[in-house]
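Practice problem. Given the sequence and the SMILES for adenosine-5'-triphosphate, write out the predicted structure.
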Amino acid sequence: MAGDWAERPRTPLEELPSSQWPEQALTEGPTFDASDAACTDSIKVFTRVRPPLERERRSYLPYADAVLIHPDARTLSLSENVSGTSLNGAASVENGLVYPTHQFTYDRVFGPDSQQAEVYEHAARGAVLSTLQGFNATVIAYGQTGTGKTYTMEGDRVGPGRGIIPRAIDEVFAFIENDAAPRSKYLVRAAFLQIYNEVISDLLKPAQRELVIREDPRRGKYVHGLSEWVVRSPAEVYQLMEVGAAARMTGATKLNERSSRSHAVFILIVEQSRAPGAAGGADDEMDQFRGLTPGMGRKAGAAAAGARERQSVSVGKLNLVDLAGSERVHITGATGRRLEESKRINSSLSALGNVIAALTDARGARAHVPYRDSKLTRLLEDSLGGNCKTTILAMISPALDAFPESLSTAKFAQRAKAVRNAARVNEDLDQRTLLRRYEGELRRLRAELQQRQRDVVDKRQLLQVEEQKRRAEADKLAAITALEQRSREFMAEKEAKRRLEARISGMQSQLLIGGTKVEDTPVFRTLLAREQQRMRGEYEQRLRDLESERLTAEHDKAKVDRYKALLVKQRDIMIALTARLNERDDSILGLQEELEAYDAHQKRLEDTLDMRTSELIALRKAAVEHSAVSPVKSAQLALALGAWATGSGHGQNAAIAGPGGEDAPAPSLLAPNALEERAASGDSAEASGSPAGAAPADAQELEALREACAVAAKERAALLTILDAKVGALVADIAHGLRELPEQAQAHPQLQARVDALQRLVAATVRAMSSGANHRPPGELRGMD
Ligand SMILES: Nc1ncnc2c1ncn2[C@@H]1O[C@H](COP(=O)(O)OP(=O)(O)OP(=O)(O)O)[C@@H](O)[C@H]1O
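Answer key:
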C-alpha cells in the first residue's frame, strides 16, 4: 500500500524548495551501502524502424527500403540494395555494382509495425521497475532527425499511441498504489530540463536558464538550480510534461515539421522507505528485466534482497532522454539559426559518440573519457559507464534516402551496446535521503505543532485569566472612583452643613438689639406670648372640632352597630322562618301526596264496588228468570230474590238491565234494602271480596288528613302574614333609616347592600308563598281561610 506521500490530498504542484533538494544530483549517486554489490552489465540497446513517412514515399525517386529485419527480431541488415540482401549478411551484387550488407544485432529490433505498448514492454519497463528497486535507470532515444524519437518517448497523450514517458509514469504510480507492504512510503519528484545550444535550462521554470553542472565532494555532480516537483499522481506529472513540452525548443525543418531542437531529459526520482523484510511487488517484474541479462539480475536481486533486510530508504532515478536528431546540413538546407542549432546538436551527438567510443575502446584503456566535451555527455556521465541501468533506443528510418544516417545510428547503437555499467541499489542508510529528511522534518513539525497547540491553549487560558483580571481591576477602579466621589460629596455636604450651622450661629450671636440679644427684648416676648396664645387657641379649637367629629363618628358608629345587630337578628329570624316554612312546605307536600294516594285508593274501591254490584244485579236477574221457568221453586231462592222474584223490582231491573246500560245508577245508590238483605244473607264484605268493610276506616283517615292539611294551611297563612306585614315592614324601616344616614351608608356600603338584599328576599318569599297558596286545592284553601 502506498505510504503517506502518495496518499496526500491533491494540492497544486509544489516545487521542492532548493534547501530540500536531495544531495543526490542528476549525475551523482547517493551514498551506497558498502555491502551492496554492483551489478555490472552492458547497456541494453534496441532499435526501432519506423514506418516510411509520406514525405519519403513522395520523394523524387521511387521509395526504396534500406532496412531488413531478421526473423529473430534482434538482427538488422542495412543495405543500399536491401532487396538483393540475404539474411547471411553477404553483399549483394546488382548491375555489376556490389552493395555491402551491414548487419547488427541488438537486444531487440522493432519493425515499422511495432506498437508503442510493445516497445515500452520490452525496452523500457524493466528500466522503470529497476528504478522502483532503487537503481538509476536511463532510457535514451537516439537517431537522425525525424526518425521517431519524440514519438517513441512521448507519443500521444492518451490511447495506444502513448509513448514511454506517460507509460513509465503510470507504471510508477500503479506500483505505489498496489504496494501492500506495511509502512511503505514513497516520495516521487519530477524535473524536466533541456540542453539547447549547449545551454541547460529548466523546462518547468523557463526563467531558470544557463544552469550549470556542479560537483562537490559531498553531493557529487548536480544541476544547480534545477527545480524538482513533488508529484502525487500521473495527472500531476502529465501537467508537468505539458508545461515542459510547451517550453521545449522545437522548429520546422525540411525533415521534420516539428523537430526537437534540444536534448530533453525528463527525470523521475522515486524515494521509497520500506519496513525490514517487506517484500517488494516489483520482484517478479524484476525477473523479466533480469531475464535479459541473467547475471546482472541475480546480483541485483541479491543486492536488493540484502537491502530489504534492513529498514532502508532507496532512491531510484529514471532519466528519460529524448535527444535532438542529428542531421546533414546539406540535406536540411539549414541556415542561420537553424544552422547554428544543427551544428550544436551534431557537435554534442558526436561528443556522445566519442564518449561511447572511449568507453568501448578496443584497447580497453579508459584513461580518458571525454565527458566534459559537451553538456550532454557530462549530464549522462553516470548513465554511460557509471551507476546506472541504461537503455538506448536507436531510431532508424527505413528509407533508402536515410541510409547513411541509419548506418551511422546503427553503428552508434552497436558500439554503445558494448558499454558496461555498474548499477547499484541506491540505498541510503545514513539518513541523507530526502524521504528520511522529510519524515524527520514531519516528525519535528508535528511535535512543533503539538507544542504550539499546547502553547495556544495555555496562551488562551492566560489571556482569559488576564482578561478577567483586567475586568476585575476595572471594576475595582470603578468602585473606588464611585466611593471617592461619594466620599467627596459626603464631605462637601458635611462641610456645607457645618458652614451653614456656623453661619446661623454666627448670625444669631451677632443679632443684638441695643446690646441685648433680640430674644431677650420685651417686645419680642410680648409678640411671642401673643403668638403662642393665638396658636394655643387655634389648637384648642381644632381639638374641640376633632372631639366633636370623634363623638359624631362614635354616635354614628353605635347607630350603625345597632342597625347591624338588628339586621343580623332579622336575618336569623328570616332564616328560622324560612326553615320552618320549608318544613311546613315539605309536610304539606307529604300530606298532599298521601291524600292523593287515598283518593286513588278510594277510586279503586268504588270501581270494584260498581263491578260487584253489576255482577250481583246480573246474578239476580238470571235467578229470577230461572225461577220463572223452573218447575222446582226454591223458597230460599225466592226469599233471596225478594221483590226481584215477584217482579216488583222490575222497574229497578229495567234500570239495571245491562251492566253497560246508560241508566245504570251509581253503585252507591243501590237500594238500602238490598244491602241490608245482603248483610242478612250472611254475605260479608270480605267473603264477597267487596271493600265495603274498609270504607269507614278510610273515611276516618281521610278526614284526619283533611284536618291536618287545614292546620298546616292555617300555619302557613299565619307565617305569610308575619313575613309580609312584620318582617317586611321592619326591613323597610331599616332601609329607610340607613338612607337617612348617607355618610354612614357610604362608610358601610356592604351594610346597605345587605339590607337591600334582605328586603328583596322578604318580598320574594312573600310572593312565592302567596302563589303557592293560590295553587292549593280548594279544600285546602278553604281550610286556610
Ligand atoms: N513508429 C512510428 N509510427 C508512426 N509514425 C511515426 C513513428 N515514428 C515516428 N513517426 C512520425 O514521424 C514523424 C517524426 O517523428 P518525431 O518527431 O518523433 O521524430 P524525431 O526523431 O523526434 O525528430 P527530431 O529529432 O527532429 O525531433 C512524426 O510525424 C511522427 O509521427
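Check your answer against the key. The mean pLDDT is 75.
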